[in-house]
Write a structure and sequence with these properties.
Main location: membrane
Number of helices: 17
Distance between the termini: 50 Å
Number of domains: 2
Radius of gyration: 27 Å
Shape: globular
InterPro entries: EamA_dom (IPR000620), EmrE-like (IPR037185), WAT1-related (IPR030184)
Protein name: WAT1-related protein
Subcellular location: Membrane
Helix content: over 70%
Number of strands: 5
Keywords: Membrane, Transmembrane, Transmembrane helix
Length: 388
């Protein structure tokens, strides 16, 4: 996951250079997902060609909307916002993703909230803090924060007053575009959860079809928005590097790595590394792009990180509680009777003796603790007497 954050950070830097060089973000989205489709499809065909689910009309609609939300809406708005702001700011706004996903999951009844428990309070408060940090970054730019390694490069560039006002207006528009992109990405996660019920064993196939559908839709959008055919020209330059890097690293490898990590460690562990990307991009952007970092972005980014980890902590505690309940449900019904309790993941049997025993004699019988892991996976018996 740490290596993946460096991959995302490199994508933001390379894409920013390509967009500043004049490449259309509409064309970049087309090339990115076309390359992603070409990379993922062979693996999907080789590993998942057997027992493919039937593409019914509801399944086709899901794939169509997934392609519209991710490759078209999210990427186009994100690249447009990245062009008007900075890579560090765009990464900081992307940290709103877990909180917005949590809110939408509550709306669609995929998440439950019991406000009396601390874990759910942390999720709600963290969501509010995250949104507040994003609003601060949007509405307050603040003074320039000089970095030691880029101070001489920033001070050598004088900016006229009218250029500053235009930059402030573009900065605000870029904030709105990034928020829309994050909302589309959160919606993608909600719909993808429903689509995975059909493609639970064919994730590569689902990814390749979404990328292919997104490529077709992005081509249609580009023909509408870009009327000059020269924007499609691409050579052996930074534009090709940006499209290939984004398609291979952030649309192909990242899907596989995130799925692998989530299967073993869960989504909370995978999402917890996202603030690291913001730090990496801030350092790389200051060195490579002499990126200007403002006080509002620093304060808002710190607030978003605190809110994000509050949501993740609540989610982690909720998953722990669900695992304990799942262990209890696996215990046979005969063992659950007679007021048994679950203590630290172990089942404590409160024995009461036989019905014809006096209560004082029954109370002398000590409690028995059974390890649930040993109960679910008992060792093989040594002889017949052990089986009896």
């Amino acid at each position: 996951m740490i290596s993946l954050q460096f991959g995302y950070a490199g994508m933001n830097i390379i894409t920013k250079i390509s967009l500043n060089g004049g490449m259309s973000h509409y064309v970049l989205v087309v090339y990115r997902h076309a390359i992603a489709t070409a990379v993922i499809a062979p693996f999907a065909f080789f590993f998942e060609r057997k027992a493919q689910p039937k593409i019914t009309f509801p399944v086709f609609v899901q794939i169509f909307v997934l392609g519209l939300l991710g490759p078209v809406i999210d990427q186009n708005f994100y690249y447009a916002g990245l062009k008007l702001t900075s890579p560090t700011f765009s990464c900081a706004m992307s940290n709103m993703l877990p909180a917005l996903t949590f809110v939408m999951a509550i709306i669609f009844r995929m998440e439950k909230v019991d406000i009396k428990k601390v874990m759910y309070q942390a999720k709600v408060v963290g969501t509010i803090i995250t949104v507040a940090g994003a609003m601060l970054m949007t509405l307050y730019k603040g003074p320039l924060v000089d970095m030691v390694w880029s101070k001489h490069r920033q001070s050598s560039t004088a900016t006229p007053h009218h250029r500053t006002e235009t930059s402030d207006r573009d900065w605000f528009i870029g904030c709105i575009l990034l928020i829309i992109a994050t909302l589309a990405w959160a919606s993608l996660f909600i719909l993808q959860k429903a689509a995975l019920k059909t493609y639970s064993n064919h994730q590569l196939s689902l990814t390749s079809m979404v990328c292919f559908m997104g490529t077709i839709q992005a081509i249609a959008v580009t023909f509408v928005m870009e009327h000059n055919t020269s924007v499609w020209r691409i050579g052996w330059d930074m534009n090709l590097l940006a499209a290939a890097y984004a398609g291979i690293v952030t649309s192909s490898i990242s899907y596989y790595v995130q799925g692998l990590v989530m299967k073993t460690k869960g989504p909370v562990f995978a999402t917890a590394f996202s603030p690291l990307m913001m730090i990496i991009v801030a350092v790389m952007g200051s060195f490579i792009l002499a990126e200007k970092i403002y006080l509002g972005g620093v304060i808002g980014g710190v607030i978003i990180v605190f809110g994000l980890y509050s949501v993740l902590w609540g989610k982690y505690k909720e998953e722990q509680e669900e695992n304990r309940k799942r262990k209890l449900e696996e215990i046979p019904e005969a063992i659950k009777e007679n007021n048994n309790t679950l203590v630290n993941g172990n089942l404590q049997l409160m024995t009461t003796g036989y019905s014809n025993e006096p209560k004082a004699e029954a109370d002398k019988c000590p409690s028995v603790t059974i390890d649930l892991l040993t109960l679910s996976n008992p060792p093989p018996p040594k002889d017949k007497r052990a089986t009896l």
